[in-house]
Amino acid sequence: MNTLATYTRLFAVGRAAGRGSAGRGLRFTSLLCATFALALTGAVLAAGFAVYDGRELRGSARAPRYVGVENPERAPLLVQVAYDDVGGVQRSVVFLDPRDEGVAPPPGVERWPAPGEVVLSEALRTDLLREGSPDRYGKPAGSISESGLEVPGERLAYVRPAPGLIDPGNMTTAAGFGSDERSVYGDRATVPPLSAFISLVVGMLLFPAVVLVVVAARSGAAGRDRRVALLRALGAGARARAVVNAGEAALPVALGAVAAAAAVGLALPSNPTVPVVDFVLPAADLRRWASLLFAAVLAAALTVLAAVTLLHRTDRAGQGARPGTRGRFTSRRLAWLCPVFLVVATRGPDLLAGGGSLWFLVYAAGVVGTLATLPALVAAAVSALGRLLVRTGNRYGRPGALIAGRRAVAQPGVTARLVASVVVAIGLVTQIQLNTSLLDDAMIAAKATHERIGDSMLTVSSAADREQNGAFLRALPEGAHGLAMEVAHSDGRSLGLYGDCAALRALEAPCGTSTADPADPRVRELAAWFGGDAADVVLHRADPAERLARDAERLLVVGDSGELVVGEVKEAAFRELPAPQVMVVAGEWLFGAAELQKPAAWTLFLGIIGVGLLAFAAAANNLGDFLRFGHTLAPLSVLVSRRGVFYATAVWTILVPLAAAGALGVLVSLWLAAPMTAKGAVLTWAFLASLLVLAQILAVLFWFWGSRSAAVQAVRWRPTAD
Amino acid sequence: MTETDRTVLAVSGVRYEIAGRLLLDGLDLSVGAGESVAITGPSGSGKSTLLMCLLGLVRPQGGRITVAGTDITRLRERALNRHRRDHIGVVFQFGELLPELTPLENTALAALLSGTPRRRAYADAEELLTTLGVPLNGTPTAELSGGERQRTAVARALINRPSLVLADEPTGALDGSTRDEVTRMLFSVPRQWSCGLVVVTHDPAVAERADRHLHLSQGRLGDAGAVLPGTGAPAGGTAR
User: Fold this and answer.
1) Least enclosed by CB within 10 Å: which of A169, A309, A457, A642?
2) How do residues A693-708 score in pLDDT, each as one tens digit?
3) Which chain regions cross the lipid bilayer (chain A) (predicted)?
């Protein structure tokens, strides 16, 4: 027999061994899921490179090619990048003024819009429609196609200002589009760098997927280890043993890889949307990198096969399959330390005045200590609950509680590993999510300001001249009034507001010079943000446009009756002012806070998947142990014909621990999160609820799967002494 | 009527063939209450198959197996399960006990799973274990000696007051002195608890202690040297 035929035969031997092994269903499913998870993670990483590469390509192609021109009036193209708040997030509005007929429009734009016209990306158009002001930047004249956007969902506007609104002095001169550097505008500013994305995927997906691969590769290990030892004893070399093991795992690994490849294939024809984060992937980039995407799937499959063939302990074969349970999981000292760390994390920072790095250090030490010592506490709790179950089982004659209780007492590590891994995973992901969403002090203050005064006062900045400002004030919607704001730089303790009688009345002040009522929340916020906390706000009757032409720095818009219709004010501003910026008081900081939401959403989304994978791995590990135990109970269950004992026992060994782990994880996370949420970090309830529901679903699925598998295994059991 | 006159197991004309091999070929066997029967035979002769047929785990292709007056080959699954639970106890080679449970719990568990009320299950288990000399100090079964484990297994087989006890190589995993002790105890069971006992074993020394010693060969049971019930004296009879 030649070598190929020998290996083919060995491969077939492995396949046959897989079909006949105990716990086959669990191993098959675990390997399939592990391969699928690892392959998809590989594909996600590859997709990350693809999308960032595409961003680089399209971002460079649309970047203005800046040139130094002595007289801006003679530049081929004038560019000014401004920002506007749409949907609570800052979006790029790029003002373009082509002065040379030979300058091509930016990529994705078919023809230059006429003066006063605007070209919008589809996503921005949708947002503007939602805000009821589709014409905010001018008359829409087409869309920016995908070739001009870094990603399909990017919000971007190219505005060609009306002749009167061009301000060459504030615009940058360019020769056209296409540069070595990516454009600075678009959603680039809010997108974390590739390295951050890679770190997130590695932590949230790759690590759990690798854990699942290891658990899957080791599931049903006792029988396989014996087989490998036997093959070795019969003289089979490492390669031959590897082929047998690969043969055993080939089908589930192949199916997992095919499923992942199919998922990748489905993403290629048209832009797929990533759920939860609502991110539209550019299919063009995926197609360009398709070979890497499929190579990642193949590499994942080969990695799982390598894990299956390498993760053997032939030297320990025959020493029994019971996991070691004593040691770190049952250390009483560590168990006692856990509540101490919890107190350090939740109360320790209170003892430190203010915040700063020491605050964070104490908190982080408390969190890390709590999560590190939690498994020991869980093991102690499992042991104690096990004794309680034994008492209950004996007192009320409940076989399931009795068996599960005795197992928990004898081997608390088995259940403790399941509970601790889920709890720690939830705790870690929650901490990452909290850190991602952590606001700085200014952002917290800005949010508080917005909660207090909402949209009742807007600030408007631009490089407008007196006439333009005058036109804007006249164009304000009914009930909205403008005031010029001037900060007295000499003492920094007074703010001057200049407006007509209607504007002063809107601030409930007399028509003349007066000191504003410091109890008015709008006045208080103005004083806090622009004049220092103790500043007086002095109101004057004057023409705001004139004051703006002199020393005033910006314009305020206030309304007669509380909230302003922001969209209408903005429309007026973009119609009358050159590159205006209209925002609520402290809006810059609100944008900063809003920009953190996307990375936080990604953390949330990938975190849920990661915790799900880890919980799956932990539950699969527990299930393997339950099936080994089920083999011991099989003879009795056959003789008394009571399969229900498996379901009853699994309630206490799988269902309750996994469900409780989800609840405990959420509880501990909430507890540990309190100091962070007090500092403005956002703990998303949907996130915690998802983790809780996920744990409960997995608990029920694995309970049923484990019970049924053990019952089926018992039905097949036969005395085999002969 | 003596105890052994009450037949607890009657096998007649049982036939079982698998993969072209005739393992049981019109096999007959009768066991009375208080009687012990040992069955020996070479490996592959069909001893385990016979045991599975007696347990109702394998349905023979012909013949009848009557346990406690009911032909189990005619019973439907549910009725068969109930009949097995009520009338048959089994002792396995390795005990097949749950190592984390105490002997009392292991024994009571079989009764609880059979629907016996809790108090009675634990009281019966305690009585049986005391009679069989198993310590009741709460030691996990895993920490018992091999002999104590097999005594516990016997107690578990008896807890539901079966008419018939089957033992599958009950001393196969024991050393010499423990084997003798367990054998003595095992063969005292039929008379003490008024049940029939069928022991499948490779060990002639164990088989010789049975009231009857039968040999399975070519699908049939033959007399391997009968002894009078309870006396140990040769009877010279044939397998009933």
Assistant:
1) A169
2) 999 999 999 999 999 9
3) 28-52, 194-217, 249-269, 289-312, 333-352, 358-385, 600-620, 645-673, 685-705
